[in-house]
């Protein structure tokens, strides 16, 4: 059985080139599975609701995993690896945080906490509405029609 990578436009190795190792989808880990599916960007796979079928039918080649996922001297990649490379719908630079789920999750939690803290701040009550003093503002009368408030006055 010859496997093809399910990432759109991912080319199989040419004859004589090193054969890519194919990875199975992490169907037992729903959170990680969802990230994989989104990053792979294959709409057939996205619409495939039967996880077992997806597991049987789809593979991802090793080109999509950064050095953060590699275990030196082994064919296996780290268990919580996420794809980051050569993906049509994912263009972030590979970091520990987007290549390995444990760090991804940690960062996500930190971000959530930060957002929650911000939301729970009391509404400012004694702050007056912003007033604009035409004399001291950066309005530029000659350019106003064209460029608006932040017009270049030189
Ligand atoms: Zn591939």
From TrEMBL:
It comes from the Eukaryota. GO terms for molecular function: DNA binding; zinc ion binding. Keywords: DNA-binding, Metal-binding, Zinc, Zinc-finger. PROSITE patterns: ZF_THAP (PS50950). The keyword Zinc applies. InterPro entries: THAP_Znf. Residues 1-91 form the THAP-type domain. This is THAP-type domain-containing protein.
């Amino acid at each position: 059985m010859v496997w093809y990578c399910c990432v759109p436009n991912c080319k199989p190795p040419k004859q004589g080139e090193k054969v890519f190792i194919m990875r199975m989808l992490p169907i037992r880990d729903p959170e990680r599975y969802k990230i994989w599916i989104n990053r792979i960007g294959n709409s057939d796979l996205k619409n495939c609701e039967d996880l077992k079928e997806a597991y049987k039918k789809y593979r991802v080649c090793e080109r999509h995993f950064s050095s953060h996922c590699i275990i030196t001297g082994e064919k296996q990649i780290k268990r919580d690896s996420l794809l980051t490379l050569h993906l049509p719908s994912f263009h972030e630079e590979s970091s520990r945080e987007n290549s390995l789920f444990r760090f991804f999750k940690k960062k996500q939690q930190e971000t959530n906490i930060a957002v929650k803290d911000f939301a729970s701040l009391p509404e400012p009550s004694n702050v007056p509405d912003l007033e604009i003093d035409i004399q001291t503002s950066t309005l530029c009368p000659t350019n106003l029609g064209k460029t608006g408030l932040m017009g270049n006055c030189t």
